[in-house]
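can u do me a favor
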């Protein structure tokens, strides 16, 4: 999936427009459609996806906004319309959910092998 989104970093001024390209579990930011140079990338499984709440002053008064957060780093994204926002958030949510389930299953497999005294450690892929 790809398309234009506006991005705002928490506590910074203004929204910036990027051509966003979803590649696997990475969110790549480019200047414009057709630009081959990636300006930055986010590894989505490291981020939490949510909608802004009353405490998100950076997104007050904006529509079609969602946020990605990882620790203290908070990024807001604004789509042109509800349909576009829903498509982006559904896709990102699926990636984040799969990653959480994968990490949980990996943890359970390691715990299980330790509990039964096995010297094998399982890595799910």
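np, heres the sequence
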């Amino acid at each position: 999936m790809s398309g234009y989104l506006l991005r705002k970093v928490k506590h910074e001024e203004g929204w910036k427009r990027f051509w966003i390209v979803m590649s696997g579990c990475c969110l790549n930011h480019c200047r414009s459609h057709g630009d081959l140079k990636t300006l930055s990338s986010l590894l989505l499984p490291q981020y939490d996806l949510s909608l802004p709440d009353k405490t998100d002053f950076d997104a007050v008064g904006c529509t079609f906004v969602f946020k990605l957060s990882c620790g203290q780093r908070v990024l807001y994204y604004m789509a042109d319309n509800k349909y576009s926002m829903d498509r982006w958030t559904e896709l990102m949510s699926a990636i984040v959910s799969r990653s959480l389930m994968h990490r949980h299953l990996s943890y359970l497999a390691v715990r299980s092998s330790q509990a039964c005294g096995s010297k094998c450690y399982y890595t799910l892929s």
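Confidence is low (pLDDT under 50) at residues 101-125. hope that helps!!
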